[in-house]
Automatic annotation (TrEMBL):
This is Protein-arginine rhamnosyltransferase. One of its GO terms (molecular function) is translation elongation factor activity. It comes from Pseudomonas shirazensis. Pfam families: EarP. The gene is earP. Belongs to the glycosyltransferase 104 family. It comes from the Bacteria. Protein-arginine rhamnosyltransferase that catalyzes the transfer of a single rhamnose to elongation factor P (EF-P) on 'Lys-32', a modification required for EF-P-dependent rescue of polyproline stalled ribosomes.
């Protein structure tokens, strides 16, 4: 029989939590032959990532994953052999009671948020005994060999290379989204939270000498974009020209198509955790809009990643990249930071690919989880 896993996801940040757990569940089924139930408390956030899904179904199957609605009134359910609470979500009390009643209690993992902070290595894999006798283990994704790695399907890098090395394939994919890029234009994508610095960046793009085509998937940044364009609303298909800048709104797409969108672009601005990791596999320059946390704890996470990511860059390129990321996240002058980045574009392109190669040399998160669980069980 297949080993059984339960993954619990509480939707907090629109698509970040469900984005990570949906990718993980699919990979555990497809590449490791496991029986996976994905419990989601808000299926409305799941449907945009999996268009075939039904937001009202209590149970449904997609790509081999048993997707369940996580109801407020929990009913009796037999626990799986491995139980994952994603991002410190609280499991149903009745489910925890059922876990403790098992002759052989399940392996209970708390899948933590991604961080490059130094303390993560020391906490990865640490047990946390519970008052009821169960043991919960902290499992940290990360960027070093002493963490759990990053989500990376076995085929993702080859698929990326196939699209990036075939201009016709790239153009056909973009055409499917209604996108036609003028020869010589640089293609950018923008997926971000609300940001007061958007206007200064867009103005720099519009006033620049480099023709730029900016693709903006549906999301929270659209209100700021509409304000800068001085239009009431923006919907998929909207196309606006301002100087050297063409802005186009594209539909929210499935995870597979979003990966392709990132691969097709020359630069990607992303947010949160899921799109942040996928932008790294795209192996092109990127900009991360980190999720804001209480007491500005996110700044430490931002700086910790930058300290890792900029290793190997020349000092001028490192300074320019750091200034851009800080401007985007801490209300700096994005226009000035963007202009200062341009002389280092070729170096940043090379560096992005080298970073992806280095990260791909480590075990991926799903494989690391499976090996950890097999050794523990």
């Amino acid at each position: 029989m297949k080993a059984s896993w339960d993954i619990f996801c509480t939707v907090v940040d629109n698509y970040g939590d469900i984005g990570v757990t949906w990718r993980l569940a699919r990979q555990l089924v497809a590449e490791h032959g496991l029986a996976v139930r994905l419990w989601v408390d808000d299926l409305n956030a799941f449907v945009p990532l999996c268009p075939a899904a039904d937001a009202n179904a209590e149970q449904q199957w997609h790509e081999g994953v048993d997707v369940r609605h996580w109801p407020a009134a929990w009913s009796a359910t037999s626990p799986a052999e491995v139980v994952i609470g994603a991002f410190a979500c609280q499991l149903p009390p009745a489910y925890i009671e059922a876990m403790s009643a098992q002759a052989t209690p399940p392996l209970w993992l708390n899948l933590e948020y991604l961080s490059a902070e130094d303390w993560v290595e020391g906490c990865h894999g640490l047990p946390s005994p519970q008052p009821n006798g169960l043991r919960k283990v902290f499992f940290f994704p990360g960027f070093t060999a002493r963490t759990g790695g990053l989500l990376r399907e076995a085929s993702v890098l080859a698929s990326r290379d196939s699209l990036q090395s075939a201009p016709k394939q790239r153009a056909e994919f973009l055409a499917g989204l209604g996108v036609q890029v003028a020869p010589g234009s640089r293609l950018l994508s923008l997926f971000a939270y609300e940001n007061r610095q958007l206007g200064s960046w867009l103005q720099a793009l519009a006033a620049g000498t480099q023709a730029t085509h900016l693709l903006v998937p549906q999301g929270r940044i659209l209100a700021d974009l509409a304000a800068w364009l001085e239009v009431a609303t923006l919907a998929p298909g909207a196309l606006h020209q301002r100087g050297a800048l063409t802005v186009q709104v594209v539909p929210f797409v499935s995870q597979g198509d979003y990966d392709k969108l990132l691969w097709a672009c020359d630069f990607n601005a992303v947010r949160g955790e899921d799109s942040f990791v996928r932008a790294q596999w795209a192996a092109v320059p990127m900009l991360w809009h980190i999720y804001v946390q209480d007491e500005n704890a996110h700044w430490e996470k931002l700086e910790a990643f930058l300290a890792l990511y900029r290793q190997g860059l020349s000092d001028p390129a490192s300074v320019a990249l750091t200034a851009l990321w800080r401007a985007w996240n801490i209300d700096g002058d994005m226009g000035q930071a963007w202009q200062a980045l341009q002389p280092h574009w070729d170096e940043l392109q090379t560096h992005a690919r080298e970073w992806a190669v280095a990260q791909a040399a480590q075990p991926d998160l799903a494989t690391a989880l499976v090996h950890f669980c097999r050794n523990s069980l």
